[in-house]
Each structure stands twice: as structure tokens, then as C-alpha cells.
């Protein structure tokens, strides 16, 4: 990616020589050029500002130096091997479109960005028109946040870092990008490093358990709880519910589980064109008895039973079944959370997770595929059913 920055304080951008962005420039992953706006003035005072028409406080940046600077950036870009290309011009401003991770991702897909750092009260409006109409540039006014800075440089530093680190190869292990705040809309989970004990404070034991699924479930719960506490505006139904209470079922839960299973498997019957599904034919006493031979989890939200799942040890595999989410609450990640909880409950000897679902249960198959499950040898005794398996991460 090519990045041009124009400013009357080019030294402000020296921070882009450092750290990951600096390394990415050395590695040729980023080509960053900083230009001094005053180089495009022709008077001995190198004037870039003048008083505002219509009066008012402060000064306005003159159009001519900016037009010459932008002409230079476009011409130099072409000379630097960006033939025919035009930069996307980003002008930071307090009244601009809010800068977000999603916007950073969009900009990271572009081959050439140019940033115009304003100062004083801002830039003569005709410069925006000149860039769009005469140079044919896409021009975006973007704001770093709802507070007032003295100029665009700080915003450009933040934007170049947020965009630059998304360029493939800039961040060593791209994996770490996945779980970041704002990447999937949830804030980050708490992190710890050695020593295990510090000033009488312990690291949460689950993090020392080596049980990846339990760690994943704990971290997801922490992200939900933090987001609910600090940024409830970020919470989206698909994130699942911060106030979801998941625990082992007792006999008292049986009537509600029975009802939930009936409700959920009607849709499975529809999808798979058969009512001959054990969950639909099993009577409540059989379900009650299953609490003694399997581990059943229930999820409650404000007291209402909204989900359930059960696990059964079969050799070194944990068979996960009867994963149910109240039909009116689908699409919120509850199924994924219950699946994580079930996996997380696995004892140390468990090597794989296995489950079955209807061959035409598209939504279930999509969720299981996303969770890492892959087709397993079909059970000849269960036509129309797909067996899935997942190796446990050690
Ligand atoms: C560019 C000049 C200063 C702004 C009079 C103070 C971004 N989130 C943000 N807050 N402020 C800026 C920003 C401020 C700028 C310039 C960006 C150019 N100023 C002006 C208008 C009021 N002074 C920003 N991104």
C-alpha cells in the first residue's frame, strides 16, 4: 500500500518511522511519503493560511498550496509505479464520518491513500471540490472521535497505524487480529502473564487448566461481561447475552427442557421432512432418566429457560446432543455459547467431540462447520442424519 501524508508539521509524522509501521516500511509492505505543505508555497513567508471570508476567529488554510501539493502527490504516485491510479484522499476533521475498525478494514483494502492534515480552523472548502472534480479523487472527511484536536496529524497517526496493521504481513501473527476489540464487536478479555501469583493476586485457574474449550468459553463470557459493562452500545443480538446463566440441569429443569426440545425439534422435522426424530418421540420420563447418564446444561435468561445441551462420554469422545435454543432467540450466538460450554466441560481424557444433526439442517451444519466440526463416517442406523467430529485442541 502507498500512503502519502501532507502536513505543515511533517516531523509530527516521524512516529511512522517506528515500531510495526516502521518495520513494514523497511519490509516494503508499506510505502509512506510525508510532504511539507510549505514546499508548495512561493512567497518568502511560505504562507499557508489567511483570514476567513465572512469574518470569525482563527485562520483558514489557503487553497493554492493544497492544490499544488495534491497535484504533486498524484504525479509522484504515478512516477512511483501507481500508473492510472488515484489516491483515496482522507481529510481528518471533527465533523467527519466516525473512524471505526470497519472503516479501517475498508481503507486497508485500498492500494493508495493520501492524508491531508489540516490546521488552524481548517482548509478552504474549494480544495475538497478541486480534489473531487479536477483530480477525480475519492475524498473522505473522517473523524477520530467526538473531541476537538488542533489539527489532523494526530488523527493521521492513529488512522495509518489502524489501517497499516491490517495489511497482510505487518502483524506477525494475523491470528491475534481475530480476537481483538472491535474486530467482532466485543471488547477484549482480561489477560495475564507470569508470575502466577503477584501481590497475593492469582491468575484465574481456568487459564492454567490447558482446557482450551473452557478457556475459550471463559474468555467469551469475560468479553461479553466487559462489553455489557463498558460499551453496551456495541452489544448486538448475535453476541449472545451478557446476562445468560448457564449451569448443570437438575430434575426441576426437566419439564422446561422437555418443552424446549419439543419446540426446537419441530423445526428440525420440517427441515428434514420427518417426525421420526428421537428428541420428538422421547417421553418426559426418558428425558428425566437421561440426567443420570448424561450431563445436561441449561441456559437461563432472566429466569426463562432459553437453551439446553447435553454431553455423554463415549470412549475418548464427548458426544454432544440435544443442543437447543429457544426458536425466538436464534441467531444470537446462544447455540455457539452452549456448544463452547459443552466442549469446555470435557474431562482431560477426551480427544474428540462428536455430534449428529439432520442432513438438511443447514443452519446447524453452518454453525458446526464454523466451530471446526467435520463430517465423520455416517451411522448406518440413522439415515438422513449427518455425523460430525472435531479433534480437541491440546
Ligand atoms: C483536523 C484543524 C482544528 C477544528 C477549530 C480546533 C479529527 N476527532 C477530531 N477532533 N479534531 C479533529 C481535527 C481538528 C482539526 C483539523 C482534525 C484541522 N483542526 C480545528 C475545527 C474547530 N479547530 C479531529 N480527525
TrEMBL record:
PROSITE patterns: GNAT. One of its GO terms (cellular component) is cytosol. It is found in: Cytoplasm. Its EC number is 2.1.1.228. Residues 244-394 form the N-acetyltransferase domain. It is an enzyme of class 2 (transferase). Keywords: Cytoplasm, Methyltransferase, S-adenosyl-L-methionine, Transferase, tRNA processing. Specifically methylates guanosine-37 in various tRNAs. This is tRNA (guanine-N(1)-)-methyltransferase.
Amino acid at each position: 500500500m502507498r500512503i502519502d501524508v501532507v502536513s505543515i508539521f511533517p516531523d509530527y509524522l516521524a512516529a511512522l518511522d517506528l515500531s510495526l509501521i516502521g518495520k513494514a516500511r523497511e519490509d516494503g509492505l508499506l510505502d509512506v511519503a510525508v510532504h511539507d505543505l510549505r514546499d508548495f508555497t512561493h512567497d518568502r513567508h511560505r504562507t499557508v493560511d489567511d483570514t476567513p471570508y465572512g469574518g470569525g476567529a482563527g485562520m483558514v488554510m489557503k487553497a493554492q498550496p493544497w492544490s499544488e501539493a495534491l497535484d504533486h502527490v498524484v504525479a509522484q504516485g504515478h512516477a512511483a509505479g501507481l500508473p492510472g491510479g488515484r489516491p483515496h484522499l482522507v481529510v481528518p476533521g471533527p465533523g467527519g464520518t466516525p473512524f471505526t475498525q470497519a472503516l479501517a478494514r475498508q481503507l486497508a483494502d485500498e492500494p493508495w491513500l493520501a492524508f491531508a492534515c489540516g490546521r488552524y480552523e481548517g482548509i478552504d472548502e474549494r480544495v475538497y471540490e478541486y480534489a473531487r472534480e479536477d483530480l477525480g479523487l475519492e475524498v473522505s472527511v473522517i473523524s477520530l472521535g467526538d473531541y476537538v484536536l488542533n489539527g489532523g496529524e494526530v488523527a493521521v497517526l492513529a488512522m495509518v497505524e489502524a489501517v497499516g496493521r491490517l495489511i497482510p504481513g505487518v502483524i506477525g501473527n494475523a491470528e491475534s487480529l481475530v480476537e481483538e476489540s472491535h474486530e467482532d464487536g466485543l471488547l477484549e478479555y482480561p489477560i495475564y502473564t507470569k508470575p502466577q501469583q503477584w501481590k497475593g493476586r492469582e491468575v484465574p485457574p481456568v487459564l492454567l487448566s490447558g482446557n482450551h474449550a473452557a478457556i475459550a468459553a471463559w474468555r467469551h463470557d469475560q468479553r461479553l461481561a466487559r462489553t455489557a459493562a463498558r460499551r453496551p452500545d456495541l452489544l448486538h443480538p448475535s453476541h449472545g447475552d451478557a446476562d445468560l446463566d448457564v449451569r448443570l440441569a437438575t430434575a426441576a429443569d426437566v419439564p422446561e427442557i422437555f418443552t424446549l426440545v419439543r419446540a426446537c425439534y419441530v423445526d428440525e422435522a420440517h427441515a428434514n421432512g420427518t417426525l421420526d426424530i428421537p428428541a420428538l418421540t422421547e417421553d418426559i420420563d426418558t428425558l428425566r432418566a437421561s440426567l443420570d447418564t448424561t450431563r445436561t446444561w441449561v441456559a437461563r435468561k432472566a429466569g426463562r429457560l432459553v437453551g439446553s445441551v447435553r454431553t455423554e462420554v463415549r470412549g475418548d469422545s464427548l458426544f454432544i446432543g440435544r443442543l437447543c435454543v429457544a426458536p425466538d432467540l436464534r441467531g444470537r450466538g446462544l447455540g455457539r455459547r452452549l456448544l463452547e460450554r459443552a466442549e469446555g466441560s470435557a474431562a482431560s481424557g477426551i480427544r474428540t467431540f462428536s455430534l449428529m444433526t439432520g442432513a438438511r439442517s443447514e443452519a446447524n451444519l453452518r454453525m458446526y462447520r464454523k466451530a471446526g466440526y467435520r463430517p465423520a463416517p455416517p451411522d448406518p442406523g440413522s439415515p438422513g442424519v449427518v455425523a460430525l467430529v472435531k479433534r480437541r485442541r491440546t
